[in-house]
Write a structure and sequence with these properties.
By secondary structure, the protein is mainly beta. 0% of the residues lie in helices and 48% in strands.
């Protein structure tokens, strides 16, 4: 199975930036779609961004479009989420995920088979 490990979370002031990384254990990572989700305290898991296995297509939640950017480096078995202009409502645990589901469900939990443990992002006012 694919093991995913997130890093890069932390505390940042509103308006600041963070870059999250997701390191995958498998060299076949380049055959998996990759997504980022987040879960705020007391709320359900929310889709943030996704990228297809080849990197050819990206998808974003309305709340982050224009401010967040997803990318991947398949040669390094690593995915990234660049987060700019952060708002307090972005405070959550962020999870990366990998899966081979069809593109039609790439923005849903069902599109993924493997999940990281999460990294905390806290945006202060």
């Amino acid at each position: 199975q694919v093991q995913l490990v997130e890093s890069g979370g932390g505390l940042v002031q509103a308006g600041g930036s963070l870059r999250l990384s997701c390191a995958a254990s498998e060299r076949t990572f380049n055959t998996y779609n990759m997504g980022w989700f987040r879960q705020a305290l007391g709320k359900g898991r929310e889709f943030v961004a996704a990228i297809t296995w080849s990197g050819g297509s990206t998808f974003y939640a309305h709340s982050v479009k224009g401010r967040f950017s997803i990318s991947r480096d398949n040669a390094k078995n690593t995915g990234y989420l660049q987060m700019n202009s952060l708002k307090p409502e972005a405070t959550a645990v962020y999870y990366c995920a990998a899966g081979r589901g069809p593109q039609s469900i790439i923005a849903t939990n069902g599109g993924y088979d493997y999940w990281g443990q999460g990294t905390q992002v806290t945006v202060s006012s």
